[in-house]
Amino acid sequence: MVLPQPSPPTVPPRRVVVVTGMSGAGRSSVLRALEDMGYETIDNLPLHLVDALITGAPRPTRPLALGIDSRTRGFDVATVLAALDRLEANPACDTRLVFVDCDDDVLVQRYTETRRRHPLAVDRPLPDGIALERRLIGPLQTRAFRRLDTTHTVPGRLKALLEGEFSLDPQADMAVFVTSFGFRHGLPREADLVFDVRFLDNPHYDPALRRLSGLDAAVGAHVEADPDWPAFFDHMTSLLGLLLPRYSREGKSYLTIAIGCTGGRHRSVYTVECLAAWLMKIGIRVHAGHRDLDR
Questions:
Q1: Is 134 assigned to a binding site?
Q2: Euclidean distance between CA atoms 230 and 222, whole angstroms
Q3: 156 is in an annotated binding site
Q4: Which residues bind ATP (predicted)?
Q5: 21 known ligand binder
Q6: Confidence of residue 124 (pLDDT cuts 50, 70, 90)
Q7: What is the span of the domain harbouring residue 78?
Q8: Residue 167 is assigned to a ligand binding site
Q9: 214: DSSP letter
Q10: Does the annotation list 26 as a binding residue?
Q11: Measured distance CA(91)–CA(87) in Å, rounded
Q12: Interval 219-254: pLDDT, tens
C-alpha cells in the first residue's frame, strides 16, 4: 500500500511595498516607518536590479519596501511601470505601490527651510523643478494602491496610518483614525467618512471659551449643552456600529473618519475625543488626532 505524500507547505506571497512620490513629500519617512514595522527597506535601488532582488536565490521571505523616485538610477516612468507589471504578475509577490504627495507650496517651504536642492531644480527655480517632477511622475500616482498626503501629517500620524494599512500581523483588526479639522483649511484628503458638526452651538462666540479648545472640560460642557448633541452622537455611533463591521469584512484594514467644524478647534475636537473613547470602548483599534488645533 502506497501512502499519499503530503503536499508541500504553501508559501505565502512576499509583501513588496514600492514607495514613490514627490521629492520632499516624506518618502524617506515612510520607508523608516516601514523598517520599524519589520520590512527590509532599500532606497533608490537601480531599476535594472529589481527583478534580480525579487527572484534571486535563496528566495528571501522578509517583506520588502523599495524606495524609488526621480533620483533613482535609470529612472523612467515607463520603466517603473514595466517593473510594477512584472512584480504584480509574479504570484510570489503581493505588490502595492504607495505614492507620497504634498501640496506644492508646502514642498517649497520645506526645501527653503532645509536649504536642500530639489533634484530637478538644479538649473531652474524651485517651483519649476517641482512642477516638472509632478508632470514626470503623474502616471505613478494614478497607478498607486495608496496615496499618502503629508501636507498636514505629523510623523506620528503617518506611522499610525502605515501600521493600520501595512501591518504584518495577520490577526490585526481594522484600525480607525479619527481626526478633527477646520473647514476653512480644507477637507482632509485621506478621509473615508466626513461628519460636519458646524450645526452645534459654537464656543468661539463665548469670550470665556474662545482661547480654549475641545480638549478643555468647559468647552466639552458647552458642546454637550446643545440640545441636539445627544441625538447627533447617538445617531453617529449607531451608523458607525453598522458600517465598521461591513468595512472590515470587505478587507479594509484602515479607516479614516474626519469631523469638521469652522476652525477645527472646539466642536470637532471635542467630538473626536468622544468618538475615540466610544470606539475604544467597543474594542476598535483607534488613533485620534487634531489636524488644525494649533492653527
A1: no
A2: 13
A3: no
A4: 21-28
A5: yes
A6: confident
A7: 14-166
A8: no
A9: T
A10: yes
A11: 8
A12: 999 999 999 999 999 999 999 999 999 998 887 778
Tell me the pTM. Answer: 0.72
- Mean residue pLDDT across the chain: 88
Domain count, the chain: 2
- The answer to whether the annotation marks 92 as part of a ligand binding site is no
Among 290, 295, 17, 18, which residue's Cα sits nearest to residue 154?
A: 290
Kindly tell me the burial class for residue 27, based on how many C-beta atoms sit within 10 Å of its own C-beta (0-12, 13-18, 19 or more).
Answer: buried
Beta bridge partners of 96: 17
Separation between Cα atoms, residue 42 and residue 102, nearest integer Å: 22
**Do the beta carbons of residue 16 and residue 94 sit within 8 Å?**
yes
Q: Which of 166, 199, 221 is the last residue of a domain?
A: 166
User: Is residue 232 domain-shared with residue 134, that is, in the same domain?
Assistant: no
Indicate the length of the chain as a whole number. Answer: 295
pLDDT at 56: 67
Whether residues 154 and 191 share a domain: the answer is no
Query: CATH number, domain at 95?
Result: 3.40.50.300
Distance of alpha carbon 17 from alpha carbon 29, whole angstroms: 14
